[in-house]
Amino acid sequence: MRLGHVHLSSAHKLCSYSAVSLIQDRAVSRYLAAKAQATPTKSTPTTSSPQTLPNPPINAPIKTPNPTVITAEFTPVYTCGRREVGTVSAAQQAHLRCNGRAEFVEALRGGQTTFHGPGQLVAYPVLDLKRHGLTAREYVCLLEKTVIATCAAYGIKAMTTEHTGVWTGPDTKIAALGLHMRRNVTSHGVGLNVGTDLWWFDRIVACGLEGKRATSFEDVGVKGVSVREVAGVFVRKLADALGIEGVDELADAEYLNYVEQPALTE
């Protein structure tokens, strides 16, 4: 099994939240469709026409799509989690949009309002938890440990606390997690601050945690590191954590085709 990785941004072009979400949603839909096809359906036998279901071949491999991860760097956007959908007032949305400098989007992920923008690594793994033998809670812990290992690669000591996410101290958060799962297929993921302008976080109570503040690689003294470089480290650490043998780096146009390529379940 291998992990496919596509990085959708470049040094000269950031991505909009909506554009990346569309690609993610298409990948999830294809994953769910493949799962539906792999699930056997039972025919209802009738008294007049009895039916016998054929037995599948013994030890027949189940073909499922490749696990993948999308990474990107967004144009400025504030997003709220699914629990806040419909509750953010027009005045609050206007404040968040900051006279057109940022977008505001209601998302399906868990968690509360946060910021994504230039200098932040966003990573969206799309994979089947059941295939990897993970519960939802174990997956959250795996992502947190992956972020901690990524930070350690740059000499940053990070940790978990009683609050979700990854922290460099009791009150300083370097990465937020917001996830969505459908039939054990994951979407959304991690926002890791590399060179993010932390002023954007000062305008909100990030993730609903009073008295806490955001930090970044640059804020703790690690400068001159690109989001794309950190993305590569994160993806390799994720592959290691999942027990995947290697990473396939994909061009933008290759990504959805890669999702459709079946990989044999081990």
Automatic annotation (TrEMBL):
Residues annotated to bind substrate: 109-116, 176-178, 189-191
Keywords in alphabetical order: Acyltransferase, Transferase
Keyword flag DNA-binding: no
PROSITE patterns: BPL_LPL_CATALYTIC, LIPB
This protein's pathway: Protein modification; protein lipoylation via endogenous pathway; protein N(6)-(lipoyl)lysine from octanoyl-[acyl-carrier-protein]: step 1/2
Active-site residue numbers: 207 (acyl-thioester intermediate)
Function: Catalyzes the transfer of endogenously produced octanoic acid from octanoyl-acyl-carrier-protein onto the lipoyl domains of lipoate-dependent enzymes. Lipoyl-ACP can also act as a substrate although octanoyl-ACP is likely to be the physiological substrate.
Protein name in UniProt: Octanoyltransferase
Species of provenance: Aplosporella prunicola CBS 121167
UniProt lineage: Eukaryota, Fungi, Dikarya, Ascomycota, Pezizomycotina
